[in-house]
Design brief:
heterodimer; A: about 575 residues; 2 domains; 20 helices; B: about 260 residues; alpha/beta; about 35% helix; about 25% strand
Chain lengths: ~575, ~260
């Protein structure tokens, strides 16, 4: 029993200073125990068990991807080192660096992350807060993938030149530290920038401008009357001319990149191979400075958070404008109300905009790959259009498969309104379908601009696949949105409370839909009957449409059956 | 005989082995300002959730304006307004957009929605912040917006869960006037709050729930008389406050002294 008569100062453990002091260690232990209890308590429900299973599967998938990338990185490193192709080594490290950073940002919205901001009400030191932020950052897919790539490189270099082990290991450890700290810093700064509405709007505008600019670059870089018309010789001549133009820039970029972290690792390994110990030490030291700088950048951001910066309630500098904000769409009634609300929410939610727009950007890149003779035939890949369109739709995973998640506490209102949930879902489906078609159109146009107009038959086949994929995605999305909903923080890209189970299942469903489309088109192409793909896909489309309607008619029963769970999950206190 | 605005019979809700609300039977007449009191964790919010159709009762029945939730659920929802636990606002909308959204969801035509939105924003003194996103509102402003949303469709029965929490004194005064006006026009208000003075001033009838069970139900005078008769020290004619009545009923008044936390400075 507690001694209530003891003086106020009694009962505290002796405090030590710094992140490794006694108090900090006690706090780490308490946090670890708390995370363990959360984990164990999560297993009490079927959802929790399923979520754990999904997470295990996801990490096995990430692990397999990482092992694959690691083996690839190892083989590449072995090849470069054994053939002494030192000038190509930086490319490998740049790719690893890109994967490390890009994967982290891309998956940030889907991974469950612990928001450390909640710890600030406790007497936690800044060092401990910083350490915890880095420590929690270690447990994510990007670290797994990047770490395995680094191990692969270490293995490849060591097999080729065992004497380089020490320098390579040292360089890679610092390179890994740099990447881990940079990832945390980027995510922290993104959240900082996107916390304010004005910043979000500026970033959105820059993002859209970038997409449009890339589109406009296309005709500038590729003159009319291109490769299809002139044949391989003309293309090769054009490529040579382009290479001549680009060469000085490549030299310049090469010189600059050698002073950046991926270049520095490569240079350090090369210098150690040539027994230039002092320059190698210098390269590793500069790399260390970069790691410190990344750590400093993270510390600068976390320090502001630690001091109590509250981004969500930051006061606006200007007085609120009293001008009327007009309606975005016409019409009355619940369907237009829900569409209007979701449209406004989308335009103010960077994670959602990011998810929808980034695949379009990737389509531009994919288009470039195909344009440059990816297939080795010298001809653009003829199925680039459906592939680009399909890729453009990947960004809808979170929107469609967790369409109630952004409601948060507002989910209660959806159950209180005199409107069936079916109507709400229908409105959301209509909005997502319209957005889906817009993205498909833009992706298709981007693909056409990069690769030239496809055949009419391929356009019709692609449309038939879309007619199948859209209702199928909506149907599956409605089911998952009700059965595996999770709360989405619309103001943050990182620190989300995502559901691995939802992410995994939605990915599997999307892959299945892509697979079905690919199988039908490939089979028909093999038998030289591509025209047959359209009726087959239309039959599948009818089935998908029927499934969507059937599910939509049962949505109220499903939602009401899980009403308590939905409200508890989406309206729960952070 | 007039139909009760709210009628429950044996209302029970269990969460696994925990019984949050047990066998609650109460009747709230139309036009009543009804206070529903109870200590923290007594089952007030769970009861409101069942009364508003947000939570399925494990046993018992709920009738609002003579109709059970079920086939008539949508029609019933048009008749009720709710400020649910946590307010259920949408942070990424502005106040104007949120009220328009809510009005449209209740089936109001566009002109009515626009007009009422303006009136409510003015009334709640939120007009100057109409273009701020809800997430940037203070707690009190959010509370006022949630109240505005709950009444935009002119409900006949209004459920309010702690409506005065975090609201400044000026706004609280205006809200009281608004709520009393609604009562005068025939609406029914079901209010839960921990501010017993407000209940005493506004409510004609009160029910007290404790550990999931209804332990008192009636007009304040009836409760006062009931409690006075059980207090040995109470002098005849002594006017007990609602706080004294409440503490007496839930068993926290008098009795054992509270253990002192001497280590608190």
């Amino acid at each position: 029993m507690a001694d209530l008569g003891a003086p106020a100062s009694e009962g505290f453990a002796p405090t030590g200073t710094g992140p490794f002091g006694r108090m900090a260690r006690g706090q780490y232990a308490a946090l670890a125990a708390m995370r363990m209890r959360l984990f164990v308590n999560g297993l009490r429900s079927n959802d929790g068990v399923f979520e754990l299973g999904a997470r295990a599967i996801a990490y096995v998938v990430y692990g397999c991807m990482g092992v694959g990338l690691g083996v690839g990185a190892g083989v590449t490193a072995y090849s470069f080192v054994s053939r002494q192709m030192w000038q190509l080594m930086p490319i490998e490290f740049w790719v690893i660096c890109f994967v490390w950073q890009a994967v982290s940002v891309a998956l940030a919205s889907f991974q469950e992350q612990f928001d450390l901001g909640g710890l600030l009400r406790f007497p936690i030191g800044f060092g401990a807060f910083y350490g915890l932020c880095v420590l929690f950052g270690l447990v994510d897919a990007s670290t797994l993938l990047g770490g395995l790539c680094s191990i692969g490189v270490l293995a490849g270099v060591t097999i080729a030149r065992p004497d380089l082990f020490g320098w390579t290991a040292l360089g890679l450890v610092i390179f890994a530290a740099f990447n881990i700290l940079l990832v945390r810093a980027i995510l922290a700064w993104i959240d900082r920038w996107l916390a304010k509405r004005r910043s979000r709007e500026i970033v959105s505008a820059i993002f859209l401008l970038a997409v449009v600019s890339l589109q406009l670059l296309n005709p500038a870089l590729h003159q009319p009357g291109n490769s299809r018309l002139h044949g391989r010789a003309a293309r090769n001549a054009a490529a040579r001319a382009m290479a001549d133009q680009v060469r000085p820039w490549v030299k310049y970029v090469g010189a600059v990149q050698a002073w950046l972290p991926p270049g520095l690792v490569a240079v350090a390994i090369e210098q150690s191979a040539e027994r230039e110990t002092a320059p190698a030490m210098m390269s590793v030291s500069v790399l260390g400075l970069y790691a410190l700088a990344a750590g400093g950048l993270l510390a600068f951001r976390l320090r502001a958070e630690y001091r109590g910066e509250n981004l969500g309630e930051a006061p606006t500098k200007t007085k609120a404008d009293a001008r009327e904000s007009g309606r975005l769409i016409g019409g009355a009634g619940p369907i237009s109300a829900v569409i209007e609300k979701d449209l406004r929410t989308l335009t103010r939610s960077m994670p959602q905009l990011y998810a929808v727009c980034v695949p379009m950007l990737m389509v531009f890149i994919i288009g470039s790959v195909f344009r440059n003779g990816f297939t080795g035939t010298g001809h653009p890949f003829q199925f680039a259009l459906p592939i680009c369109v399909a890729y453009g739709l990947l960004g809808f995973a979170q929107l469609m498969y967790n369409n109630l998640g952004p409601e948060g506490k507002g989910i209660q209102m959806l159950f209180l309104f005199p409107v069936p949930i079916r109507t709400v879902m229908l409105a959301k489906n209509m909005f997502h379908a319209l957005l889906f078609m817009l993205v498909a159109l833009i992706s298709g146009l981007l693909a056409c601009l990069r690769l030239g107009p496809p055949s009419a038959l391929l356009v019709v086949t692609t449309l038939a696949w879309l007619a199948f994929a859209l209702p199928a995605n909506l149907a599956a999305g409605n089911v998952l949105s009700i059965t595996m909903a999770y709360r989405v923080n619309l103001g943050r890209i990182g620190r989300q409370a995502g559901s691995q189970a939802n992410a995994l299942l939605s990915m599997l469903i999307q892959m299945t839909l892509l697979g079905v489309g690919a199988a039908v088109i490939a089979s028909c192409t093999v038998f030289d009957r591509l025209w047959l793909a359209t009726p087959i896909l239309l039959v599948l489309s009818a089935g998908a449409l029927f499934a969507w309607l059937k599910i939509l008619s049962n949505v109220d029963a499903m939602a009401n059956q899980r009403r308590d769970v939905l409200i508890a999950k989406l309206a729960r206190t952070e | 005989m007039e139909i009760a605005a709210i009628q429950t019979h044996g209302l029970t809700r269990r969460f696994g082995e925990l019984t949050a609300v047990e066998n609650v039977t109460l009747s709230v007449a139309q036009g009543q300002f009804f206070g529903f009191l109870g200590p923290n964790g007594a089952g007030k919010s769970t009861t409101i959730k069942m009364l508003t159709g947000l939570l399925e009762p494990s046993a018992g029945t709920v009738e609002i304006l003579g109709q059970p939730f079920g086939a008539a659920a949508l029609e019933l929802k048009r008749q009720i307004g709710v400020v649910p636990e946590g307010m259920a606002l949408l942070g990424r909308l502005t106040a104007t957009e949120y009220l328009r959204f809510v009005g449209s969801m209740y089936g109001l035509d566009r002109d009515t929605v626009n007009r009422r939105t303006e009136e409510l924003l003015e009334f709640m003194q939120l007009a100057g912040d109409r273009r701020k996103m809800v997430t940037d509102f203070s707690h009190g402003m959010q509370k006022k917006l949630a109240l505005a949303a709950a009444v935009i469709h002119g409900p006949k029965v209004l459920f309010l869960d702690e409506p005065f929490e975090g609201v400044d004194a000026i706004a609280a005064g205006m809200l009281k006037v608004m709520l009393q006006g609604m009562i005068q026009r025939g609406a029914t208000i079901f209010l839960t709050t921990h501010v017993l003075e407000i209940v005493e001033r506004l409510c004609s009838h009160v029910a007290i729930i404790h550990q999931g069970r209804l332990v008192a139900n009636g007009s304040i005078d009836e409760l006062r008389a009931g409690v006075a008769s059980t207090l040995p020290g109470a002098e005849s004619g002594q006017r007990l406050t609602l706080e004294e009545i409440f503490l007496s009923i839930v068993g926290a008044g008098g009795g054992e002294p509270v253990q002192e936390l001497s280590w608190l400075t």
